[in-house]
Amino acid sequence: MTTLVIGALGATGRLVVEALAAAGSSVAAGVHHPRQVNASSDRGSEHRLFDLTWEAEEMEKAFSGVDTVVNAAAARDISQAARVDRDGVITAMSTAQRAGVTRWIQISMAGVDRPEVLPGFLLSAAEAKREADERLATTGMEWTVIRPPWLTDAPAGGRVVLNDAGAGSLSRADLAGVVTASLQEPATINRTFEVASGPLPINVALAQLL
Questions:
Q1: Residues 6+ apart with CB under 8 A from 208
Q2: For residue 200, how far is the Cα from the chain centroid?
Q3: Quick one: which of 97, 136, 142, 175 is 20 to 30 A from 63 by CA?
């Protein structure tokens, strides 16, 4: 099984690539430009050129031989959220489905369905992500939507809580662990859940989604 990680050179995407490779997965790291190849080649993965601003025809090659996609990308500029986090992701989902991808894991954002709890500057990004999350459920692929809260660069703790609206943060390393564990846990298929640092080992928490 080959997993394409979109946003592979981002702060979260790098850790997702490393976690998947460490778990023995065949990983294709999606990068924007040929000059980024060297930045991804030392983490146990191949590289594939990919950009969420491309048209579907340009995206097709990156999905060749891919069974699973992890979308760890996000617009760097919030003003581009609709173009990247909604339109680009929706185009990528449709292209992936036509290419034979069977599993898509979407890293979204906690609170996208509760805009009243979000600061104003995040509302446009939240709306874009929510629309993409909802579209994913209609693609025919097996899907998982993971909604973390504020992300930190703390070391992995390996313990989380799911669907706790009061939870405050999650390390990127633990988010990468949740992504990797989700690929092995059937209870995450066709599920949306929020996740934050908490008391339960990751695999135990995910299994409770059943």
A1: 162, 187, 200
A2: 21
A3: 175
**pLDDT for res 42:** 46
List, in order, residues 6 or more apart from 1 with CB less than 8 Å away.
Answer: 25, 26, 67, 68
Give me the mean pLDDT over the 57-71 stretch: 97
Closest CA to 177 of 152, 154, 157: 157
Cβ–Cβ < 8 Å for 129, 87: no
Residue 39 has pLDDT above 90, yes or no: no
What ranges do the domains of the chain cover? 2-148
> Is the separation of the CB atoms in 167 and 199 below 8 Å?
no
What is the CATH superfamily name and number for domain 2-148? NAD(P)-binding Rossmann-like Domain (3.40.50.720)
Would you say how long the chain is, in residues? 210
One DSSP character per residue, 48-95 reads EE--TTS-HHHHGGGGTT--EEEE----SSGGGHIIIIIIIHHHHHHH
Q: Which residues of 149-187 are buried (b: 16+ CB within 10 A; e: fewer)?
A: bebeeeeeeeebbbeeeebeebbbbbbbbbbbbbbebee
Average pLDDT rounded to a whole number, residues 5-26:
96
Instruction: Tell me what the mean pLDDT of segment 135-148 comes to.
Output: 98
